[in-house]
Amino acid sequence: MKRRLKAHAMHPHRRTIIWIGLAILLFVAHLGVGGAVVAAEKRSDSSSYPLSLSQKRYIKTYGYPEQFILLFISEEVDFQKRVKKVLPQPRRIEAWLYITRERYVIFDNGYFTEEVPTGVSIDDPEILPPTDLNPTQFTPAMTRSDITSRFGKPDTVEPVKLGKHLVEVYRYLTPVKGIKSFTFYDDRLQSIVAGFAILPASGAVDQQK
Fold first, then answer.
1. How far apart are CA 138 and CA 199, in angstroms?
2. Per-residue pLDDT tens digits for 134-175
3. Which of 58, 93, 150, 172 has the most CB atoms at less than 10 Å from its CB?
4. What is the distance between the alpha carbons of residues 139 and 119, in angstroms, rounded to a whole number?
5. Cβ-count burial of 41 within 10 angstroms (0-12 exposed, 13-18 middle, 19+ buried)?
């Protein structure tokens, strides 16, 4: 499926940040060499995520991320050997974006991986307001009802059938409420994009709910 990125209000800086977001998304998805990003299959007893010591230190110094991408991986695939490995616990990969510092940082299961310059300078940080979300609010046990009970009806829903499985993307696109999107795999939360939107290409059909 071809995809494009788009920001509401489409200020040039916001366009740039969204392309940064795509680059981060591709990078974190590639962290598991030969891995496939799929929905978490096992439930967690926790309704919130406890930060690691590395993450707590980072937040103490820099605060919560201004935007972020969060992925849950429960399977890793060796495409050469055609072997699929189910992980005992979903792997949690987070990309925290700090626009004002011109940096993003990667955490893999809470462990600091690296900090990378965004290569973008923002003259007016108010153009890109921080997300109203933070990564501690989400676990792989969450479902669509958990998200809609908190954030209400999404502005758009994009369903995609993958064999017997259903992937759905819920998008909240009202800037005053905070732009965000959630991807579900068979009703289980798979990823969160907070602070910008990843929209389907022209011609793709979004359904209203």
1. 22
2. 999 999 999 999 999 999 999 999 999 988 989 999 999 887
3. 93
4. 31
5. middle
